[in-house]
Amino acid sequence: MSKRKLNERDVPEVSEPSSPVAEASKSTSESTSKATEPVNSPEPTFASLDLEPRLLRGIRDQKWASPTMVQKEAIPLALEGKDILARSGTGTGKTAAYVLPILHHTLRRKDKRVTSSLILVPTKELAGQVAKLAQSLAAYCGQDVRTVNLAGKESEVVQKAKLAEFPDIVVTTPARAAANMNNGALSLKGLAHLVVDEGDLVMGYGFKEDLDYISQNMPKGVQIFLMSATLSTDLDAVKGLFCRDPVILNLDDLEKDSQLVRQYVLPCAEEEKFLILYAIFMLRLIIGKSIIFVGDVDRSYRVKLFLEQFGIKSCVLNSELPLASRLHIVEEFNKNIYNILIASDETELLGSMKKDDEKRPKKKAKTEDSKSDSGVSRGIDFRNVSCVLNFDMPANYKGYFHRIGRTARAGKSGTAISFVIPKDKYRKHKPTTFAGAENDEEVLKKIQKHQKEGQKIEDWKFDMKKLEPFRYRFADALRHVTKLAVREARIKEIRMELAKSQKLSRYFEEHPDELAHLKHDQNLNHPARIQPHLKHVPDYLLPGGRRSQDIGFVSLDKPKTPRIVKKKGKKIIRGRNGKIDPLKTFNARGKGKK
């Protein structure tokens, strides 16, 4: 086991030299004493972080090759017991950066009759992800680590029963934690670690009173983790509640992985958004999984119904659906069962703030900036996304960077395509107008201004003239997607998912394998008539005209001519199959005349 020391930034470092240059600079005695030790590789590993061996087996199952930047910096500090305020982009591994040290300390603790760790997250979806990751990493720890997620739909009685068993780690929202503290089910007397994940969103979602209550009842000496993708005044408020002098890890700006995203912008008219979307998926201009970001839930269903006209399957992550359905949609999308997911930035905002506690004070209204900077573009983990398509632009540049952070994760490349409505084309086509598109050009300027060095937004050279043959089909399909169709489809899917969630939840608990057959991308049977011929694109509509076709084997034999048979003075013409052709035996002069 190699020894560690602190550098000038209070970050632990391996004392052995990691390069030949560093090795040459050591004194002769130090070199002699370490001559027999192997030189560490430049690329750090999880094994070098001195984590519990059982956790390393769990990490191996996750197929993580090496720790990310935030994990390399945060885990050693956390193992020393220091408070940490970490800012790192979406998808950079912040969750594992605090879960692994907490699991490590939990395995070393002797007193198992207390809840030692409380993880606070803004949404139920994120709570499910954190709890699932903690359980996966502790898969080889047996009963030494027990993790409970209280952010689900369980009743107060069920929550009390879970907390009565003193789970080591509790994952929940601030409102649910405060409610259980208030009724005596959750005690913080033995608390050793407190995590506030997505700290800026937690405060922005109206949980300030709950956080105040938790901080007032928390014992001294608790290790604090504050994790966020941005540093904001909301995060400063959380910092003031829980810690005074944390180690601040400001790792990169906004979305680190967005450097690997090829960014394109396409100015177009309002109705042309749908035309281009049709061409992208019908002509397969995008390969792989895609997330289509729209302005609100109504727009989500408008896009879904439009794509249904052409037989293109997609699913909507709607905040009004039951929690189990939303989690299942994300899980199935990550398993590549669905290729197209339609979402809005308000998806989490509207769906996550349930009435967990009737005594909670009313939340203040959200500003437009806080709304657009939250939602599905933050928190939820989507995997292997090839393209992010901004069908509607976000309200500010931060929302844009969080959106495109859904792709190009874990070193992979990705594409982001954004449709922008110029001012002179705004409100020119009322059926497809979206109010948020009025400021598209201003938002684009801010996005370009905040691009990092080496990043840029390129113009997508899309020849709209080649789409002229498709305009009739596109207009025909769009005409059937009315406001009534959108409203009824939205209501119908909610009813369908509610029925599935309520009637089948117990069955799926007993038969988890059957859950894979539950589909969320089926047609909604809305009033808009689906026309089967729109599912296929004739060759003559393709750019360049009709393609040559393979008509198969052609015989050199002379084709058979129709056989003419005369019967009782009448001329009867039979076809190749021997049947009489009535059209060729028709007598124009009338019956009985010659």
UniProtKB/TrEMBL annotation:
CDD domains named in the record: DEADc_DDX56, SF2_C_DEAD
Main location: nucleus
Top-rank lineage group of the source organism: Eukaryota
DEAD-box RNA helicase Q domain span: 44-72
Enzyme Commission number(s): 3.6.4.13
Catalytic activity: ATP + H2O = ADP + phosphate + H(+)
The protein's name in its UniProt record: RNA helicase
Native organism: Massarina eburnea CBS 473.64
Top-level taxonomy: Eukaryota, Fungi, Dikarya, Ascomycota, Pezizomycotina
